[in-house]
Design goal:
The complex is a heterotrimer.
Chain A lengths: L1 H28 L3 H6 L5 H11 L5 H13 L13 H36 L4 H15 L2 H15 L11 H31 L2 H8 L4 H39 L4 H10 L3 H29 L1 H4 L2
Helix pairs in contact in A: 1-12, 5-6, 5-8, 5-10, 5-12, 6-8, 7-8, 7-10, 8-10, 10-11, 10-12, 11-12
Chain B lengths: L2 H11 L7 H10 L4 H20 L40 H37 L1 H15 L3 H12 L3 H28 L2 H8 L4 H37 L11 H9 L7 H28 L1 H10 L7 H4 L30 E12 L2 E13 L4 E5 L6 H9 L7 E10 L2 E2 L5 H10 L1 E4 L3 H4 L6 H13 L3 H14 L5 H4 L9 H12 L6 E5 L7 H18 L2 E6 L2 H7 L2 E6 L2 E7 H6 L4 H9 L38 H5 L5 E4 L2 E3 L4 H6 L2
Parallel strand pairs in B: 3-8, 3-9, 6-7, 7-8
Antiparallel strand pairs in B: 1-2, 1-4, 4-5, 9-10, 10-12, 11-12
Chain C lengths: L24 E11 L12 E12 L4 E5 L6 H8 L7 E6 L2 E2 L5 H8 L2 E4 L13 H11 L6 H14 L16 H13 L5 E5 L7 H18 L2 E6 L2 H7 L2 E6 L2 E7 H6 L4 H9 L41 H5 L35 H7 L1
Parallel strand pairs in C: 3-8, 3-9, 6-7, 7-8
Antiparallel strand pairs in C: 1-2, 1-4, 4-5, 9-10
The chains are: A mainly alpha, B alpha/beta, C alpha/beta.
Chain lengths: 305, 674, 368
């Protein structure tokens, strides 16, 4: 198993290198960074001056060598927008996003698994229908709008909670709730169908024929096998919270990575974008590694080849 | 599971239906639940197409006097006599008109993006799945890498490079969504590629493109349709999100997401500005998702049950869903026409006595009569074989005895199962459960799927002691190892730590047997225990079962379709057809002189390894559909002895002689015909 | 029939134009290994599953060769390589003198017309989205010029009737048929190109017992009428005996014994054949006490790491040291006309044939 983890880790490094190189080349071959900063109305000589100033007129490979050395040293250059080193800017925002994502997942995952299991236990019951509705809502959730409606209701009308910011625990409730909708629905749905699938497997029949108690069959036999797809999905959902974070952090002015990404794109700040890509890529790799570890622990076929 | 059993299951549970456009549309119109979403989609489409004519105002027509006008207040403006039903935006433009034009933008982005990404994705998926090899490797590496990146972030990066705008958005979605189609299409193509009908097309010389587009693609249509519907919803949501962030559709073009962003600045004093566009997005996405869910349940056979069970009250039928309490022995017939099992005398005490057992399957397509009055007895040390083809009800009746039917869809609708004089159908659930495993045990056809893949075999056997005896885990494992040695699994101590997938088929069945005999049951039900095994392994397992039976004196019920296996081990045989026992009695007599045309036909139709036969005498026709079992004698359409009476009068179980019975009006003629 | 079609369809009767003794199909040293995945990205090859490991046999016009063996013995792989659904690792197969494995893709397509296949699973072997008529006529669409379009529906009707189905079934979809009927449709499709050889891969094992005989009889009838040759692959020794003229017994990718049906079933000389035959349950409850059954010990070895020497030696009661050192070759040791691959081959007259003087296999097994 240790070999498996090491192999996955090496693969991750490889993926990271590929992603960073792709971003580098795409940023310079498809788009012209200098022209993008100055906008479509810029004069050609202004673009040229800027290119020379940032070294974008040099051969691509020379630029890449400089970029690669910078990445290894943790230096992505200065942000054009804020005129300070880009990587620390991105890293400053990391805790806020991790905080938000953690609260969201800690709330959504257990609840979703419980709801999904209950739905699978009694198909057709009220809980089952509730889970169906929940998953439909989750998939259709217009997160920015839901966030605004929550603000409208709880902050503007009822004045129970603050509209935006991140000063205390009270501030995390509304954004986390908004962000939780999708993983809640999806994980509940997948838990339900994974449980239903396991419950229809022949080994459940065997367990019943052995006279094992129903509770033990559901929680011990079925859930243990259903965990494999559930964990895989939960990992995907954890990564996808970054999607939601972009929108939700904008709505609630939550000072996280998402908000910074939007600013970086609107300000056409290439060094900052590159630094953000680096941070996000590492986040994703760590999450996937965690999922793989759990997965290989749960599935004997992975563990013992 | 062998192919024949899959076929049997299909007969029993799933009337195979072809999903065509017409059938889906028909089902859609019939399904009242789907009426609202359907209606909404139609309205949305009409609005989007005809926005120019239908919108009451020009969506770009600004009127600063009407800034942030609340809904349903002001009447007409200079250019139009229609009221501002949903109010006006900060520039005094009619919100409703902008919503209607926004529908056009949303749908246009959704459809164009899905067409672009779908075409790329499906083609790549087909090619990768069909040709496999390095092409597949490259495509799938790319898919995996892209799927790992949160889509919105990728979209933002591309938008940074190419800038905003309608076609750039379509480009963004084409580039960020094709992987889903590729992954799904490739997966299905891979599995279809191995299907015999595709290989059949290869063997008659079809070209690759003909196979891909004529044989594989049409079969992928239902799941792709589901995917496309889901994807339209996803793209519309993503477009709204990007426009909200100011990176999607650019003003002044009306876009729902942009409209919400505008309303955000006025959230404290003009609630309608965010409420209505948001609702429009939500309803559109919800409708599409509902549609996709519905399509999936309709087109995927494995999902159809769920849709059905989700609305089971429609099929509620108290008469058949409740176990019918047994009337006291009333099913026993008169002297010569006996419905009681062979050899039953009122005072004889049997180990297991099944009387007039009935099981129905309630499916969305009607009721399947799986078991229609089955009676038999089993005594200590005896082997009773239940012989039948797929769909004859042999497995279902055994599962009903065991109390492990999947319910719904299966329901025991009558009869009794007397174990040691106690009716198992009437005792409490917990008592029944305790009897299972302890007194009656069962082993199954496919030992791999019958064992839990997530537990070691040792702990699965040990579970019997822990559950029923409260033995400590350590002691239970020690006993499990003893049992594994008893069923002759080599190096049992080490192998107890292994998982089922690490064993061969024969060894897995030994594990199953070990856990079945753990608590010295009185009855062992073996459901096709060797069908999935090779003939030399079959011999080993049958020998083991016979030995164990001699040692423990348990009664054995052997369920099989193999006349050879029956002849080898059974003392008594009960032949089942269409959910009924058509003939039963001692094995030697029945094989020598069958008293039912079906048994006779079976014996004449099978080839033998010990003699070369010139010609096999087949039974004509095919086993009946359980939804519509023939009237009278269910075997009459295939019977060589059929007379008029057989069409109308269901034959009772005639007593042929001591211990023998046959359900044929003409059993004497059958016995005497050579 | 159009004059310009490159080979007009002959009426459905026997092909007896050439009556040479030259075998129709001659397979020489066929090998098929499935390589296992690599260990890691740059790692070494992890070996291969030796599915077929040097198989040779001949098939004559109009005869049936049965291939029997247990799961994983390679019998289906032979069918798939002969139909070029899989590429062989090495070896040759001469069909009417031309090496099947050396032919170009175009030449293969033409050859498809003369070799056809029937599959095991009748529920999966017909495209669910094509009507029966389209399924049967598809070969003529692919190979243009055999049956002109306007005659196709007539020919489909004839084929359907030939396999015992009403002509009106051409307009129905496969899911409307039972397993036995579907298998008939599969046979009709195979017949559409008027092949000389049909490879039947477990054609009846997915069918209900009461329906098997119908299909077996149909296959036999077609053989008599059309002069077809069959390679009949099955695990059911009873069915194989019934339909075959000659039988090859396979074990772990090799033929261990081959000969005519009577020789193999009454005088098997290879211990594996003897064990197989004695393990087959017979529908004869009275004879069960008198039967001597050889119950093999141990398990089938892995096709990835087959035992050295004779692959059966790990389960064989006769095995001695030579068996692990020297792989026995197929040889006709008793001039019975049927070679077997065992150092200690001896004719063993099965007790089931109720002949006096048989050696009890059980005693042999116990003596060891």
């Amino acid at each position: 198993m240790a070999r498996y983890v090491v192999r996955r880790f090496i693969q991750s490094i490889f993926v990271l290198v590929v992603v960073l190189s792709l971003v580098f080349f795409a940023g310079r071959v498809i788009g012209n960074p200098a022209a993008l900063i100055l906008g479509p109305e810029a004069r050609a000589e202004d673009v040229k001056t800027l290119e020379e100033r940032f070294g974008y007129d040099q051969p691509l490979l020379v630029q890449f060598g400089r970029y690669a050395r910078g990445v290894v040293a943790g230096d992505f250059g200065n942000s054009w927008w804020q005129r300070r080193p880009a990587l620390p800017m991105a890293l400053e925002r990391l805790p806020a996003t991790l905080n938000l994502a953690a609260v969201t997942m800690l709330f959504a995952l257990p609840l979703a698994m419980i709801l999904g299991s209950l739905a699978a236990w009694k198909p057709g019951s009220l809980i089952d229908k509730g889970v169906n509705v929940l998953s439909l809502t989750g998939a259709s959730a217009v997160d920015f709008w839901v966030g605004l409606m929550l603000i409208l209701f709880f902050a503007v009308q009822l004045r129970w909670l603050p509209t935006s910011g991140s000063d205390s625990l009270k501030f995390v409730i509304l954004p986390a709730l908004t962000l939780a909708l999708r993983p809640l629905g999806r994980v509940a749905q997948v838990t339900r169908s994974a449980m239903l699938e396991q419950m229809s497997k022949p080994y459940i029949k065997t367990a019943r024929a052995k006279g094992i108690r129903e509770r033990k069959i559901v929680l011990g036999h079925a859930l243990k096998n259903a965990f494999i797809p559930i964990i895989t999905l939960s990992g995907d959902e954890a990564v996808s919270t970054l999607n939601g974070a972009v929108v939700v952090e904008t709505v609630f002015a939550w000072p996280g990575l998402g908000l910074l990404i939007v600013s970086a794109v609107t300000n056409r700040d290439l060094p900052l974008i590159e630094a953000l890509v680096f941070v996000v890529a590492i986040l994703i790799i760590v999450t996937n590694l965690l999922v793989d570890l759990t997965y290989s622990y749960l599935d004997p076929k992975v563990r013992y080849g | 599971m062998t192919a024949s059993d899959r076929a049997g299951l299909r007969d029993l549970e799933e009337p195979v239906r072809l999903i065509t456009a017409r059938s889906v549309l028909g089902a859609l119109l019939r399904d009242r639940l789907m009426l609202f979403p359907l209606l909404f989609l139609v309205v949305l489409a009409v609005t989007a197409i005809g926005a120019d004519f239908l919108a009451p105002h020009d969506p770009f027509d600004q009127n600063l006097r009407l800034r942030n006008l609340p809904p349903m207040t002001a009447s007409a403006s200079e250019t139009s006599k229609f009221p501002y039903v949903l109010g006006a935006d900060p520039l005094g433009r009619d919100l409703l008109s902008r919503l209607m034009h926004g529908a056009r933008v949303s749908l246009a982005v959704g459809l164009s993006s899905v067409i672009a990404s779908g075409t790329i994705g499906i083609l790549l998926g087909l090619v990768a799945g069909y040709y496999r090899g390095w092409l597949d490797d490259i495509v799938m590496r790319g898919v995996d890498a892209l799927m790992g990146i949160p889509g919105l972030l990728l979209a933002l990066f591309i938008l940074y490079l190419v800038g905003a705008g309608f076609w750039n958005l379509v480009l963004v979605f084409a580039l960020t969504r094709w992987m889903i189609y590729t992954r799904v299409t490739r997966g299905m193509t891979l599995s279809f590629r191995e299907q015999p009908f595709v290989e059949g097309a290869q063997t008659i010389g079809c070209s690759d493109s003909r196979i891909i587009f004529r044989h594989i693609l049409p079969n992928l249509v239902p799941p792709i349709l589901v995917l496309v519907t889901l994807e339209i919803a996803i793209v519309i949501l993503a477009e709204a999100g990007l426009s909200f962030l100011g990176l999607g559709i650019q003003p002044p073009a009306p876009s729902w997401g942009r409209m919400v962003a505008t309303g955000r600045d006025y959230i404290t004093n003009a609630w309608w500005l965010i409420t209505f566009p948001g609702l429009a997005i939500l309803l559109t996405a919800l409708t599409l998702n509902l549609m996709a869910t519905w399509l999936r349940t309709v087109s995927d056979p494995t999902q159809r049950w769920r849709w059905f069970t989700g609305r089971s009250e429609q099929f509620h039928d108290p008469e058949t869903e409740i176990v019918v309490p047994r009337r006291e022995q009333s099913s026993r017939g008169s002297m010569d026409i006996s419905t009681s099992p062979p050899g039953t005398a009122a005072d004889v005490h049997h180990l297991l006595e099944v009387i007039d057992l009935r099981v129905k399957f309630r499916t969305p397509y009607g009721v399947l009569n799986a078991v229609n009055g089955v009676s038999y007895t089993l005594n200590r040390g005896e082997t009773l074989a239940i012989l039948g083809e797929s769909g004859s009800g042999k497995t279902v009746s055994a599962e009903a005895v065991m109390g492990i039917l999947d319910s719904p869809p299966a329901f025991v609708t009558g009869g009794s199962v007397l174990f040691d004089g106690v009716d198992l159908l009437l005792v409490s659930q917990s008592r029944r459960r305790r009897l299972c495993g302890e007194k009656i045990a069962m082993i199954f056809q496919d030992p791999l799927s019958a064992l839990n893949p997530a537990y070691t075999v040792g702990s699965q056997i040990a579970g019997m002691f822990q559950e029923h005896r409260g033995t400590s885990k350590r002691e239970a494992i020690a006993k499990a190892i003893e049992l594994m040695e008893r069923v002759r699994i080599p190096s049992a101590r080490e192998r107890a730590q292994d998982y089922p997938h690490q064993f061969s088929g024969g060894m897995r069945q030994r594990v199953m047997i070990a856990s079945a005999i753990a608590l010295d049951p009185d009855v062992l039900i073996a459901d096709e225990p060797t069908t999935a095994l090779d003939v030399t392994v079959q011999a080993q397992i049958m020998e083991l079962l016979a030995e164990l039976q001699v040692e423990t004196g348990m009664g054995l019920i052997l369920i099989t379709h193999d006349l050879g296996v029956v002849a080898d081990v059974a003392d008594y045989v009960a032949v089942m057809y269409a959910g009924k026992i058509v003939e039963s009695g001692p094995i030697a007599e029945i094989y020598k002189r069958p008293a039912h045309p079906y048994t006779k036909g079976l014996l004449a139709s099978i080839p033998r390894a010990d003699q070369k036969m010139e010609y096999l005498q087949p039974i004509s026709g095919a086993p009946p559909n359980l939804q519509s079992i023939p009237s009278g004698c269910p075997f009459h359409p295939r019977c060589a002895f059929v007379v008029d009476r057989c069409f109308v009068e269901p034959p009772p179980l005639y007593k042929v002689r001591q211990e023998r019975s046959s359900s044929c009006h003409r059993f004497e003629d059958v016995m005497h015909a050579s | 029939m159009l004059a310009d079609s490159n080979e007009p369809l002959k009426p459905l009767t026997a092909k007896r134009e050439e009556s040479s003794t030259e075998p129709l199909l001659k397979v020489e040293d066929l090998v098929k290994y499935y390589p296992l995945g690599r260990q890691g990205f740059f790692g070494a090859q992890r070996g291969a599953i030796k599915a077929v490991d040097g198989v040779s046999f001949e098939l004559c016009r109009g005869e049936t060769l049965g291939l029997v063996g247990e799961t994983g013995c390679g019998k289906s792989t032979i069918a798939r390589t002969l139909m070029r659904l899989e590429e062989p690792t090495s070896g040759a197969a001469y069909f009417k003198g031309r090496d099947l494995f050396a032919l170009s893709k175009a030449a293969i397509q033409a050859l498809r017309r003369e070799m056809q296949m029937i599959f095991q699973d009748p529920f999966a072997s017909l495209n669910p989205r094509m009507k029966v008529g389209q399924i049967i006529a598809e070969p003529w669409v692919v190979h243009s010029g055999i049956v002109p379009k306007e005659e196709q529906s007539q020919q489909v009707s004839e084929l359907l009737e030939r396999v015992g189905l009403p002509a009106s079934d051409a307009y129905r979809f496969p899911h409307e048929f039972s397993g036995g009927q579907r298998q008939r449709i599969g046979i009709a499709r195979a017949l559409a190109l008027q092949p000389d050889v049909i490879i039947c891969d477990e054609p009846v094992s997915a069918l209900d017992v009461s329906v098997q005989a119908q299909v077996i009889n149909l296959l036999a009838e077609l053989q008599t009428d059309l002069g077809l040759a069959y390679i009949f692959i099955a695990h059911d020794l009873s069915v194989v005996r019934h339909i075959s003229d000659r039988v090859a017994v396979m074990h772990l990718g090799r033929i261990v014994e081959i000969g005519n049906e009577h020789e193999i079933y009454t005088r098997p000389t290879h211990p594996y054949t003897q064990a197989l035959l004695s393990a087959v349950p017979l529908p004869d409850p009275e004879g069960r006490k008198g039967r001597n059954r050889i119950v093999l010990e141990g398990e089938m070895p892995s096709p990835i790491y087959p035992p050295s020497g004779c692959s059966f030696r790990t389960r064989c009661w006769k095995a001695e040291s030579i068996c692990s050192e020297d792989r026995p070759q197929l040889a006709d040791r008793f001039n019975h006309g049927h070679p077997s691959a065992c150092h200690f081959a001896e004719p063993h007259i099965l007790a089931t044939e109720k002949m006096a003087g048989s050696i009890s296999a059980q005693t042999i097994a116990l003596d060891r």
